[in-house]
Amino acid sequence: MMPAFELFQPSSVDEAIGVLRRYDKESWVLAGGLDSLEWLKNRVEWPKAPYPRAMVSLEGIEELRGIRSGPDGLEIGAMTTLSELAEHPEVVDRYGVLASAAGQVASPQIRNQGTLGGNIAQDSRCWYYRGGFDCYRAGGNTCYADTPTAMNHDHCLLGADRCITVNSSDVAPALIALDARVVIRGPGGEDVVPIERFYIGPGTDITRMNVLEPGMVITRVQVPGAWSGTRSYFEKARHRQSWDFGAVNVAAVARLSGGIIEGIRLAVNGVAPTPLRLTAVEEAVTGSPPDEETATIAGETAIWGARPVHYSDYKVTLLRNLVRRAIRGVAV
């Protein structure tokens, strides 16, 4: 049977943090609740011991909702739904890569419930980890996905360190391309973390995928205006087009002058434990036209150092081709 827990529905961030602080590691934050519902529904071993005694829903905290425009860009509340993000006129017009990424998450029903904060902070999708195996990420000493006969077609190409899971957020690479910042509040106050530093790999802490610790809440995401209105590209490759997680996705924003790439930011996800900004690709294509030759160089640079596991080798070709298409796509 599912263990008992208390449900708290605070009306302010400070109230939520107070509850989280009281229960410490025995607390769990609910945003849209989709990822948490899956854990509860599976009734397997909870991913982080001990099992939470307190579920803290952020649903009723109004300050965590909404998209606000200012002179320095956008501030997006962590509880803003993905549908609101995908359809907001200014996001569509000025930050198209973000609107496109949010609009390709899962299905309309899930986008109506899922939140920006939940999408960027979601846990590993590895089925061994989620199936209750005592793997590295769950506190054990084995990676069940890293064997020749394992079901590992959705696992790492780059950055593996014992654990070979990948990050699955669609919105994260778009936010990295836009140089966004995550605002976190906890018992020690508020901190603003660049989105690239928000994620941590297994070499830093194998049991979590981001810097959030017990008692912390994402309050909003700041998207600076530096890359607003620039050319952009987002593409997501998945096994099923209906609602699936991405096998690989790519996001890019670029400035062109006289047909030459003057500046570009490009990020991918689904290939490593964290979303990756491909700075080597950016350096390789800056100063060149976004033509087929440049796209080919970008694709080959993107896969340098890739080390697929047994069944994930198809992702090498997929990553190469998506980066090539992104370079060509920013020219349109």
Automatic annotation (TrEMBL):
Pfam families: CO_deh_flav_C, FAD_binding_5
Keywords tagged on the record: FAD, Flavoprotein, Oxidoreductase
PROSITE patterns in alphabetical order: FAD_PCMH
Start and end residues of each FAD-binding PCMH-type domain: 1-228
Family annotation (InterPro entries): CO_DH_flav_C, CO_DH_flav_C_dom_sf, Diverse_Substr_Oxidored, FAD-bd_PCMH, FAD-bd_PCMH-like_sf, FAD-bd_PCMH_sub1, FAD-bd_PCMH_sub2, Mopterin_DH_FAD-bd
Source species, domain of life: Bacteria
Coiled-coil regions listed in the entry: none
One MF term in the entry's GO annotations: FAD binding
PANTHER family membership: XANTHINE DEHYDROGENASE SUBUNIT C-RELATED
Protein name: Molybdopterin dehydrogenase
Record organism: Limnochorda pilosa
Source lineage: Bacteria, Bacillati, Bacillota, Limnochordia, Limnochordales
